[in-house]
Amino acid sequence: MAFCTSCGHGISDDARFCPDCGKVVEANPANINQSKAGPDLNSSYPSGGIVTFPRKRKISTPVIVMFGVAGAVIVASSIVAISNSSSNQFQNALDSCMTVGDEGYDDVQIGEDGQSMYLNGSGEDDYSSLDYASEFCILNALDIPEIIVTRMNATSSLMGVQTGDWGNFSASWTYHPNNGLDVSITKN
Question: What is the pTM of this model?
Fold first, then answer.
């Protein structure tokens, strides 16, 4: 077995290039049959037959680990950001229609985990002050489909609890003239 004169890597006797650094191996006439040797490398290159190829860059393990950790941090941050924006959907819908201190603002309850919302609509005998327009503004901010709005508008006190699903939401609602339209929404 021969060794590369440039990097010292072991090479087979019939190799024409070093498998590690890529340099042309100087021909050993005793080991090479001239009919199979190909062109005379020594006459083709002014440097005496030694051709330098770029060395393969080896990436060190710490660099690979660093990029892996950075990728994991980016993925985790994205998941947290999506989760936070999802848990704020109810608050964002409320804030797009009302501000703190508005009449009826306190009649909207958002669950501590951000996964549910209750709209306590105003009725004839109810002390709630969340009017119908504010309720539907909040529902529209949650992208409620028109078909469910139509069903809510058609709900009477004799129909009991009604339900509907859209996107990642499930809603249930009741209506009575004395209590108004009360809507409970949860995220699936």
Answer: 0.54
